[in-house]
Design a protein that fits this description.
478 residues; alpha/beta; Udp-n-acetylmuramoylalanyl-d-glutamate--2,6- Diaminopimelate Ligase, Chain: A, domain 1; UDP-N-acetylmuramoyl-L-alanine:D-glutamate ligase; Protein-Tyrosine Phosphatase, Chain A; 11-stranded mixed β-sheet; 6-stranded mixed β-sheet; 24 strands; 32% helix; globular; binds ligand UAG; binds adenosine-5'-triphosphate; binds 2,6-diaminopimelic acid; binds magnesium ion; cell wall biogenesis/degradation; cytoplasm; peptidoglycan synthesis; UDP-N-acetylmuramoylalanyl-D-glutamate-2,6-diaminopimelate ligase activity
Length: 478
């Protein structure tokens, strides 16, 4: 594609590049630049892409898109390289998002789960659906591995193009707060945007809860319709900031457009009555926990906003399956239960432990750690909540990344120091899981928190294979 075609619609401040140049690939990482490519220089948090312009040109880049051009370089100067990258990506792939119904979910917890519920309901209604999120990307049932919850704009549009070409009519995606601030979804118009909740996470990046909230609110400035959790403390502000009509949902608050009543929380799922537009339907979802009612309402809100009849949506919900690593039961053939869950924030820990407490006949044993190079202030809070809600805690490692595992654990223990809940510290996670299994008692529920679908432990930029399902299975082989 010619450079000028890639730049269609991009607000160019000045250019010394040849618009007729035939561009190979578009790269935002100099290390991947090859002959004839376009290098987009981005100012980041760790480094500045402008530092690598010279290197990119040496490697054969045909032109550079940047915010500040070095002398003599074939450069296209723009105000914001991240936005330009997103616009170039849409041009490069033929604006695939425009030909599908785009659906986005933001919020601290529940995004992944909600997206799977929406996909399931839309597929039941006969649509081919693409899904983008933390666990994996899906084109129908084809799995595409992912590194991110919301990919960088260029990868995102490439993925949309594959989805469009495969016949997808709808895309349901998680829209992380990082992606909203870093313009990964810039230029995408969502038919429906949905907000699950706002609780503490990612303060390493957003610094304050209000910044974090405002990041999420961006979604409702680029959506035709919104779906908002009225029970969340941030609901009023989210509604005030929204630039689109919003459907609210609630467990019990009759003011909400979509309201759940007669909640029944079972060990293997939830049931409730959903009222919407004067109609009522009984909803069943085979995933346990009060938060599953909220996720079900969020997903229902999205498909109702698209015009799906309530009765059809409710019928479909009953056949939804669980999501890998979200309250997932690990088969053990013992008289106790092992669950794998992705709770990795104070609210996630609280919710999953309360849910488990709701159906546990014996002790609730919480095994968890906290990620390195991530929000440190959530660590003692997660520790305190786990100590408050579990009968026994095992504190271990969860993706230490470049931090010292024991130092992360010490941050967690800070929040547990006044607790009388018995606990054990075992830095090595497989060893900690073994210890939990060795000491399990009848009717215990052992909740392995934080890894969810992840099948690795990330240490110093290297992902070492570690699948909790395999660790449990191997334990019982011996
Ligand atoms: C905080 C954050 O999200 N950072 C993302 C951001 O990095 P950045 O802007 O700081 O980039 P940088 O590392 O300073 O580099 C600046 C530019 O120089 C380029 N570069 C760098 C080195 C070099 O030799 N040559 C070169 O050209 C880089 O490719 C980049 O374009 O843009 C990069 C390019 O897309 C991302 O890889 C990077 O994700 C980092 C690695 C990350 O871990 N992100 C996580 C926190 C994240 O995005 N998480 C969310 C939410 C998770 C959830 O709760 O579900 C997600 O959506 O996954
Ligand atoms: N609506 C909810 N409210 C609070 N906690 C929830 C909710 N839904 C799920 N959880 C808890 O949070 C964990 C993460 O859920 P899920 O993966 O659906 O969230 P997410 O928003 O996609 O997270 P991430 O930011 O990592 O992508 C679950 O394993 C569960 O413990
Ligand atoms: N995607 C999120 C959750 C990671 C969960 C946990 N395993 C961790 O490493 O903290 C993040 O990158 O913050
Ligand atoms: Mg997710």
């Amino acid at each position: 594609m010619k450079l000028q075609e890639l730049l269609k619609g991009v607000a160019v401040l000045s250019s010394t590049a040849d618009g007729e140049a035939e561009i190979g690939e578009v790269r935002y990482d100099s290390r991947a630049v090859g002959k004839g490519d376009l290098f987009v220089a981005i100012r980041g948090y760790a480094t500045d892409g402008h530092k690598y312009i010279e290197k990119a040109l040496e490697q054969g880049a045909a032109a550079v898109v940047c915010e500040e051009a070095p002398e003599g370089a074939p450069a296209v100067v723009v105000e914001n390289s991240r936005k330009a990258l997103a616009e170039i990506a849409a041009n490069r792939f033929g604006h695939p998002a425009d030909s599908m119904v785009m659906l986005g979910v933001t919020g601290t917890n529940g995004k992944t789960t909600t997206t799977y519920l929406v996909k399931h309901m839309l597929e039941d209604a006969g649509h081919k659906v693409g899904l983008i999120g933390t666990n994996q990307n899906l084109i129908g049932s084809e799995v595409i591995e992912t590194e991110r919850t919301t990919p960088e704009s260029y990868e995102l549009h490439a993925l949309f193009a594959r989805m469009r070409d495969a016949g997808c009519t709808h895309v349901i995606m998680e829209v992380s707060s990082h992606s909203l601030v870093l313009d990964r979804v810039h230029g995408i118009r969502f038919a429906v945007g949905a907000f699950t909740n706002l609780t503490q996470d990612h303060l390493d990046f957003h610094k304050t809860m209000e910044n974090y909230r405002q990041a999420k609110a961006i979604l409702f400035t680029v959506s035709d319709r919104g779906v908002i959790n009225l029970d969340d403390a941030a609901a009023d502000k989210m509604l005030a900031d929204a630039k689109c009509p919003c459907l609210t949902y609630s467990c019990g608050n009759e003011k909400a457009g979509l309201c759940a009543t007669n909640l029944q929380l079972h060990a293997d799922g939830v049931e409730f009555d959903a009222r919407y537009n004067g109609e009522t339907a009984h909803v069943r979802l085979p995933i346990p926990g009060h938060f599953s009612v909220e996720n079900a309402l969020n997903a229902l809100g999205m498909v109702l906003s698209l015009g799906m009849p309530l009765a059809d949506a409710a019928k479909s919900m009953a056949t939804a399956t669980g999501v890998k690593g979200r309250v997932e039961v690990v088969p053990t053939d013992t008289d106790y239960t092992v669950l794998i869950d992705y709770a990795h924030s104070p609210d996630g820990v609280e919710n999953v432990l309360k849910a488990v407490r709701g159906f546990a006949k014996g002790r609730v044993v919480a095994l968890f750690g906290c990620g390195g190079d991530r929000d440190r202030t959530k660590r003692p809070k997660m520790g305190r909540i786990a100590a408050d809600l579990a009968d026994f805690c095992i504190v271990t490692s969860d993706n230490p990344r470049t931090e010292e595992p024991k130092a992360i654990i010490d941050d967690i223990l800070e929040g547990m120091k006044d607790s009388k809940t018995p606990m054990q510290v075992i830095v090595d996670r497989p060893a900690a899981i073994h210890w939990a299994l060795e000491h399990a008692q009848k009717d215990d529920i052992i909740v392995l928190m934080g890894k969810g679908h992840e099948t690795y432990q990330e240490v110093n930029h290297v992902k070492h294979h570690m699948d909790e399902r395999e660790i449990v299975a191997e334990y019982f082989k011996n």
